[in-house]
Amino acid sequence: MIFNHKTPPYILTLVCAAALGPLAMNVFLPSLPGIEKYFETTSANAQLSISLYLTAVALLQLVFGPLSDKFGRRPIIIIAFIIMILGTLICIFATSFEWFIAGRIIQAASSAGLVLSRAIARDLTKGPSAAVMIAYITMGMSLAPMIGPVIGGYLDEFYGWQSSFYLTMGFAIFALFLVIVDLGETNQNKQSSIKTQIEAYPELLRSRRFWGYAITAMFSSGAFFAFLGGGTLIANKVYGLTPSEYGFYFMFISMGYLLGNLISSRITNRVGINQMMLSGNLVVAMGLAASIIVILAGSTHPIAFFGFIFFVGVGNGMTLPSSSAGVVNARPNLAGSASGLAGSLQLGGGAILSVIAGYTISAENGALPLAIIMFVSILCASLATLYVMRIESQISSGTP
Predict the structure, then answer these.
(1) How far is it, in rounded angstroms, from Cα 27 to Cα 4?
(2) Residue 4 has pLDDT above 80, yes or no
């Protein structure tokens, strides 16, 4: 493998760049009870380390997209990763909960890797091929959130909650190194100015196809983000799991996501991105419906909830690569901006759902409220997908 920072990157580089954000999001989750105890705060406040991180990611994606359309993908990712490393150091050495939250917000700069990897895929490929490339990127990327919480759980038990952040910083340095030595600039049609892009936003906002794909992504991933916001509380308060045990159960959704992306990479070119999105949403809906039925039947085993979360991962892995490809293909000349805006909606919606999930969970309510919230979210995603399919049908038939 020969690295060249003046040529298109290897898929490994894009995978590592895209994986940094999810790793920063997931690896510390088993440590939330320890963080709550260390800073002597409440569970609701500890959840802010998730919801405020997601909010910051949502806002930053509005910035990263246009900046990369103007200045290129490479310099934005490099600067963002350096900032993320500084945020991780703040988390490690925080002397108060406020400083810890500040570090988490700064860590959100890692999202540049995820949002711009999609734009890079669009720079290099088109149509369903972009969905396939995104699927390969996210398939490799899913290894980070799959094994991250497991490793984070054991690190927490043996070395304390800060150890997860040392792991994150090490991976961030490695990803930054790969980007510097391997990521050649792929944006060959840079916009003349940020002002020009802002003026072009109405064109993007008028695109019904963009909104259909963006809302599909927002509510599809919303089920996952609701799980992030409530899964740790359910593991700790409802099922009494240790950090390492929760890390093990978290693998169910990550393994499902890996499988879903594998399916997406193999068949999207044949069935098309719209059919893939709908199929993925149906997989999630059926899995959550089954979980709700089992919980209502009186099961108190963690598998009644966490086992069926596997299907949320499978469905998201099928849906999100295609919705991401649809977003950047809606207006190819604004691929970075479209990816950033869609990502902002996706993460903003996720932040709201994670907060809602955190406040509805208690030992008395069990896992049922969270399963219902996730189910409603995926129903909304399905409606958005059907809306896209209706628009495509109208375009094909020439109907205005």
Answers:
(1) 31
(2) no
Contact between 229 and 354 under an 8 Å Cβ cutoff? The reply is: yes
AA identity, residue 106: I
Here the tokens at position 161 are: 């909650």
Tell me the whole-structure pTM to 2 decimals.
Answer: 0.74
**Structure tokens given for 346:** 């996706």
Token pair, residue 149, equals 């919480």
Pairwise CA distance, residues 173 & 101, whole Å: 21
SS3 207: coil
Instruction: Report residue 246's pLDDT band, with 50, 70 and 90 as the boundaries.
Output: confident
Residue 305 to residue 284: CA distance in whole angstroms: 13
Measured CA to CA, the distance from residue 97 to residue 147 in angstroms comes to 27
Q: How far apart are CA 143 and CA 139, in angstroms?
A: 7
Residue type, 279: S
pLDDT at 162: 93
What is each CA distance from 159 to 44, 87, 247, in whole angstroms? 24, 21, 16
Tell which residue, 66, 72, 326, has the closest CA to residue 186.
72
Concatenate the DSSP letters of all residues of 291-342 into one string: HHHHHHTT--STHHHHTTHHHHHHHHHHHHHHHHHHHHHHSGGGHHHHHHHH
Query: What is the amino acid identity at position 343?
Result: G
Q: Which domains does the chain have, with CATH numbers?
A: 11-184+203-392 (1.20.1250.20)
Packing angle, helices 111-124 and 73-92, rounded to 10: 160
CA distance 28 to 19: 15
Q: What is the mean pLDDT of residues 77-96?
A: 95
